Amino acid sequence: MTASDFDTGAPRRILLATDLSARGDRALERAIDLSQRSGAALLILHVYEEFDEASLTYGTRALPSWQRPVDAFTIMKQRIRNALRAEVGDAIEQAVILIEQGDAAEVIERVATEHQVDLVITGIAREGPFATRPVVLGKTVEQLLRRLPLPILVVRNRPRDAYRHVVVATDFSRFSAHALQMALRFFPDQPLYLLHAFDVPYASQVEGTARHAAQLRDERAGDMSAFLQSVFLPPQDQGRLVPIIEPGRPQQIVREYVQLHDADLVVIGTQGRGTLMEALIGSTAKSILATLPCDALIVRGPPT
Hints:
Elements: E1 13-17, H1 25-38, E2 41-48, H2 72-88, E3 96-101, H3 104-114, E4 119-123, H4 139-147, E5 152-155, E6 166-169, H5 174-186, E7 192-198, H6 209-230, H7 235-238, E8 241-247, H8 250-261, E9 265-270, H9 277-281, H10 283-291, E10 295-300
Parallel strand pairs: 1-2, 1-4, 2-3, 4-5, 6-7, 6-9, 7-8, 9-10
Antiparallel strand pairs: 5-10
Helix pairs in contact: 3-4, 8-10
């Protein structure tokens, strides 16, 4: 990638897509924190499938039609604003609240395009009644990954502070190069830990496995160096990268690194094509996301 391909600067417009569930308050808090730190405009979007005016009750009954407010959407928007204010206080007054009807992925795509959004934020998918763990990528997020050429921040944990320990998972592809550049853009002040994990083939059958792994590590170190030389990096950013190369299954290494070092964000580049999950984000990325104990920034692209 060249300098002309690199869009510098923090996001200017952030879109929070929320279902107003109790778990969604984590994504709300993170969206407000990021918008305040970056100075980005914040849009909060709630998409519903059907709108029932009868639900806008006063006391125990709905008002007769001749006494109802003309704009029922204003009532719903104010109720949502009041609920959000209860969560985060006056910070909500700086946000634009949008209420739309229709298919969630289609509406989010349209709103993101119309408002020239740079980042979409959402919470993790709801848990099913028999789920043993939360489903990280729900149907809407999977559809957005196919449709939106925008990074999507999936918030799992309640924010404690700004992201302090950001890991960029890389396989040296152009997709991970694009993800690295996006991470440099969104997080301009902190170091970024560039993590590459590699399988050691036939580890149980090779004598001197440790020596074999060390040889492979040296080879991958050369690949890492070539990768970084192929990516445009502004001079001020070159010193912020901390390369890490470890033998092992990528999904296991990423998870263990996050747990051991208390990392709070992993950035993953995806291809973003196809209809199957494996074609959509790659089987390795899928496995990482399924077990990741922290937030994830999923970067689709780069554009062709």
